[in-house]
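Incident log, support desk, overnight shift.

02:14 A customer reports that sequence design results differ from what the structure should imply. Their input is reproduced verbatim below. On-call engineer (initials T.W.) acknowledged and began investigating.
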């Protein structure tokens, strides 16, 4: 906090659809170009100089989550569900898709 390390600057958490998450993780998602129905190109809303990384910052986790309280000292096998919303009706922040469904947390950075 308050330290400028000249690295990418975090712009906080965004919530993206399954296609955006899979595209970021694997470079591909669906076999067809419809992406669940509306044909939004995954991660098309993320343009340079912005980049995304999987997951959310420790301080963004729920207050009772060990990642929030312990950060990188949380046990290696600890899992939480802060980074997944199993059903959301809000627009995907990665591609603009309005399809309802799973949303996954990512952190937006500006390089
Ligand atoms: Zn897809
Ligand atoms: Zn958590
Ligand atoms: Zn998306």
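02:41 Re-run completed on a clean worker. Output:
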């Amino acid at each position: 906090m308050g330290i400028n390390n000249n690295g990418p600057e975090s712009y906080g958490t965004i919530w993206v659809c399954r296609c955006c998450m899979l595209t970021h993780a694997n470079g591909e998602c669906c076999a067809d170009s419809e992406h669940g129905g509306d044909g939004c190109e995954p991660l098309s809303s993320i343009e340079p100089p912005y980049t995304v990384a999987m997951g959310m910052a420790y301080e963004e986790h729920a207050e009772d989550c060990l990642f929030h309280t312990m950060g990188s000292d949380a046990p290696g096998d600890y899992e939480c569900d802060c980074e997944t919303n199993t059903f959301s009706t809000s627009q995907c922040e990665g591609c603009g898709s309005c399809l309802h469904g799973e949303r996954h947390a990512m952190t937006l950075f500006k390089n």
